[in-house]
Amino acid sequence: MASAYLIVDTKIRDTARYEEYKDLAKPIIERFGGEYLARGGELYSDQCDLWTPTRIVVIKFESMQKAKSFLESDEYKPIKAIRIEAAKSTMLLVDGL
């Protein structure tokens, strides 16, 4: 079974509220087997024809199903609402090799 990667580009509007989101989301992500690989570090882009990234987060899950289970979980829904309130985001879920 291939790993899956959750890739999120985030433009934060409310820093305090987003910090609350991060604190609440991390343990839920970990309960679903998610592992942070990148979380808003230095960003370098060689080409931006399709979009200009802002703040990238990459989370590895053991499978696409595990990642979808996290995203669709009742546990995450109220936390997701905080993220939507605090930031604009583009979120992608992609199969690994």
Instruction: Write down the overall mean pLDDT.
Output: 96
Sheet having the most strands? 4 strands, antiparallel
Query: How many helices?
Result: 3
Using only C-alpha atoms, the radius of gyration works out to 13 Å
Residue share in β-strands: 25-35%
What name does the CATH topology carry?
A: Alpha-Beta Plaits
CATH class: Alpha Beta
Unreliable sequence segments = none
> Could you give the count of β-strands?
4
Q: Any guess at the CATH architecture? A: 2-Layer Sandwich
Amount of helix: 25-40%
Tell me the span between the first and last alpha carbons. Answer: 9 Å
Strand order of the largest sheet: 2-3-1-4
Number of domains: 1
Helix/strand-derived category reads alpha+beta
SSE pattern, N- to C-terminal:
EHEEHHE
The general outline is globular
Explain what you see.
It contains three helices and four strands. The chain is α+β, with helices and mostly antiparallel strands and 97 residues long. It has a single domain (4-44, 53-95), classed as Alpha-Beta Plaits, CATH 3.30.70.100. Helix 1 packs antiparallel against helix 3. The termini are close together.
